[in-house]
Write a structure and sequence with these properties.
It is a single chain. With 286 residues, the protein is α/β, with parallel strands linked by helices. The protein contains twelve helices and eight strands. The protein has helices at 17-28, 43-51, 60-64, 79-89, 109-115, 152-163, 177-186, 188-205, 210-230, 235-241, 248-258, 261-285; strands spanning 10-13, 36-39, 55-57, 69-72, 99-102, 126-130, 140-146, 166-171. An eight-stranded mixed β-sheet has the order 3-2-1-4-5-6-7-8, sandwiched between helices. Helix 4 links the parallel strand 4 (69-72) and strand 5 (99-102). It starts with 9 loop residues before the first strand and ends with a helix.
Length: 286
């Protein structure tokens, strides 16, 4: 999986949780720690990265000077400044520019290409990625979109990077679909957390202790998720399998239906998708 990355020099701009998760996945899959350099301005985060054995610096330019692949893992609000700083550092660079893999939420390819423009109008090849927080446990789901000038070998590099922490890495063929990935899997873990939160409160309201309700709800979510992943049946069939006619599950599902459950989910995913698009437009103007 990571063989294509073995001899590459990898740079991470930003050493937060997601960068740390990807680095952990790469190292677990045999990538030499000395081939990884992390630029992180905060002393505490930089010390955490240094403790893993990778090279660290507080200088973005230093970290990126000889990189083959650069992961942009900064907060969207500082992305423009960071990209322009790196572009200035690459002025006069004779070697090809690194492949950019951006996990900065909401930043469009157009903005990234504008901010990364080097002397003579050169721009690096860029892949946008939307991972999610289960990547911190090696159980992520990621969406990827590549600019038109990204080669197949570069796509393979980006996919190898993400698959070090993602069980699913899906390429989309239109950039606006990255916002849909955001609404579905990027924000999706919070939907499940909210569901479990309410299951726990319902159980407590009906007489269980908080500890009992929490253990039961957590394991129910985990077990159902494992069935989804490991079963060859579609989710609808799994639902049907557990729903006896005129039984308890049917009563609950009818209550969901009466409350407009499908519409609630549709609206939530669309709201997150729309917000992702809005953020990209706002950041492009700032």
């Amino acid at each position: 999986m990571t063989s294509q990355l073995q001899k590459r020099k990898l740079c991470f701009i930003g050493g937060g949780n997601m960068a740390g998760a990807i680095i952990g996945g790469l190292v677990a899959n045999g990538i030499d720690k000395q081939h990884i350099c992390v630029s992180e301005p905060w002393d505490v985060n930089r010390a955490k990265m240094q403790a893993t054995g990778v090279r660290t610096t507080a200088s973005n330019a230093e970290a990126a000077q000889d990189a083959d692949l650069l992961v942009l893992a900064v907060k969207p609000q500082v992305a423009r400044t960071v990209c322009q700083e790196l572009a200035a550092a690459w002025v006069g660079r004779s070697a090809s520019l690194p492949l950019i893999v951006s996990i900065a939420a909401g930043i469009t390819l157009r903005s990234l290409q504008e901010w990364f423009t080097v002397d003579g109008g050169r721009t690096p090849h860029i892949v946008r990625v939307m991972p999610n927080t289960p990547a911190l446990l090696g159980e992520g789901a990621s969406g990827l979109f590549a600019a038109g000038d990204v080669s197949q070998s570069e796509k393979d590099l980006a996919a190898s990077l993400l698959r070090s922490v993602s069980k699913v890495a899906e390429w989309v063929d239109r950039e606006e679909l990255i916002d849909v990935v955001t609404g579905l899997s990027g924000s999706g873990p919070a939907y499940f957390f909210a569901m479990v939160e309410h299951l726990i409160e319902s159980g407590i309201g009906l007489g269980l202790t908080r500890e009992q309700a929490t253990r039961l709800a957590k394991q129910t979510c985990f077990g159902a998720g494992k069935m989804l992943v490991e079963s060859s049946d579609e989710p609808a069939q799994l639902r049907i399998n557990v729903t006896s006619p005129k039984g308890t599950t049917e009563a609950a599902l009818k209550s969901f239906e009466a409350s407009g459950f499908k519409e609630i989910v549709d609206k939530a995913v669309k709201a997150a998708t729309d917000r992702g698009k809005e953020l990209g437009e706002t950041l492009a103007k700032s």
